[in-house]
């Protein structure tokens, strides 16, 4: 009769003791394979077949990248096929008439910024650089494309000015 319910009252599904180099291990039966790199105690639950001794020869140098050719069965040489080289196909949308989709949830201030910037453009005679130079960053729409000068001005120009003025005094 069992007076208490603890782990000692019930047998485990397999023995937890070690019995030599083969056979049962701490967490269950072990495959006869003696070198399971990186660990026999399930440190890495999903082992790549590359690390098992019983792996396929085709997987030895497998990297997951598609080959750009094939091995000739007669000469056993690698034959490069130019048509198998991947290439990006990007359409030219220079004269494309459709506009990109803009959700109706778009902030109404964007349209206001666009109208204000158009007014500034007409004020400066269509000169976009002058309109950008005489407006705040928050008023610009669409935002100007970022180039090296803008990045330099944003991150370093003020520090260089301060260092120059400090050295001048």
TrEMBL record:
Transport among keywords: no
Entry GO CC: mitochondrion; ribonucleoprotein complex; ribosome
Main location: mitochondrion
Keyword annotations: Mitochondrion, Ribonucleoprotein, Ribosomal protein, Transit peptide
Cellular localisation: Mitochondrion
UniProt entry tagged with the keyword rRNA-binding: no
Family: Belongs to the mitochondrion-specific ribosomal protein mL41 family.
Stated name of the protein: 39S ribosomal protein L41, mitochondrial
